[in-house]
């Protein structure tokens, strides 16, 4: 399988990327690690006329402690995040989750910015960033804007990013000392989660329990009122709308959400 | 566009369509057919090569993305005198293959794993090779081969 024809362009700075987006508008698509976009293009589910490769933009590859926040460059690869010592100390949930994306080969290419901008509710990092109260820093022709993760995932593969905008940075509050847990249930090791859950402190993000990653609000409220992991976990499927498929019914996914959330909360509380 | 990739230490330069996949460049433009195309959907790992020393699935990388970079394929593993790489030797010694289709990808993925973690546990080998499917061996002997290549006890 090969993608439909397109014109390949390489940007080496954020400004160059924004210039190419301004020039080509909706005909252009940004290429980070390509581990989601290229398979879609090979299946002809996506057919951009211009592909703007961001891989040479070294200025977007970093993890920094910035006051009470961690700043992550959008082009940081999953493998970079998995082994990052700053992240391991101050946002260990994210370092851990990055090590569960796809497989090693995919983690050598895929980036956190690419995963978030792709906005697949079955992906691991969007739910983890949602649970982490992350903020996404976006640059466009008129400057920079910051979008809280709770406002970023609008629907399946849908975000508020405009065609001329670029996700440059992800910021999360320091999670130093907070309990955390992550559970991911898959059929085979490299599959997307049938259901997954990311917990940090009293925040709970659910993977694949609807068209977007969602917070388990009923669980979070129960935790705030002193509920045990089992009591709070039992509420994890409230207000979710998981997809009903032959290999995993909606009811099965709700069951998984309750079980996995209880496990992750138990880990976080330990 | 013109793409130039250093493959196994040799520069290969060719005029290709922008949409050319790295695996097609390696097989058809460079003529190195040791890298196999299996599933073609980023699942099976048969097309694994090293890009700047790290394992990638070459069916899911554009040749354009590798332009100016270094690629190592299975043909680049043996020494110039034909002496097999320790991983190749261990796969043979431990019967880490039957049909052999997944083997080039398995060996390249293992090389990347060992470069990062020279003395992995058996569990770490299994996790490190999650992205490579073998339909013959049941993986047991593949894990044995990687353990042997890393100079560790092969604990069956």
Can you walk me through this structure?
The complex is a heterodimer of chains A (about 270) and B (about 160). Chain A is an alpha+beta fold and about 270 residues long. In chain A, helix 5 runs antiparallel to helix 8. The longest helix of chain A has 20 residues, at about 250-270. The termini of chain A are far apart. Chain A is about 30% helix and about 20% strand. Chain B is of the alpha+beta class and about 160 residues long. Helix content of chain B is about 30%, strand content about 15%. A five-stranded mixed sheet of chain B has the order 2-1-5-3-4, sandwiched between helices. Chain B is globular, with a radius of gyration of 15 Å. The chains are: A alpha+beta (about 270), B alpha+beta (about 160). At the A-B interface, strand 1, helix 2 and helix 6 of A face strand 4 and helix 3 of B.
How would the blueprint of this fold be written?
The complex is a heterodimer of chains A (270) and B (156).
Chain A: E1 7-10, H1 14-24, E2 28-31, H2 37-42, E3 50-53, E4 63-66, E5 69-73, H3 78-82, H4 85-90, H5 92-98, H6 104-107, H7 112-118, H8 124-131, E6 135-140, E7 143-148, E8 166-173, E9 180-185, E10 195-200, E11 203-207, E12 214-215, H9 217-224, H10 229-233, H11 250-269
Parallel strand pairs in A: 1-3, 2-3
Antiparallel strand pairs in A: 4-5, 5-8, 6-7, 6-8, 9-10, 10-11, 11-12
Helix pairs in contact in A: 5-8
Chain B: E1 2-7, E2 10-15, H1 22-29, E3 48-51, E4 54-57, E5 70-72, H2 86-93, H3 103-116, H4 122-128, H5 140-149
Parallel strand pairs in B: 1-5
Antiparallel strand pairs in B: 1-2, 3-4, 3-5
Helix pairs in contact in B: 2-5
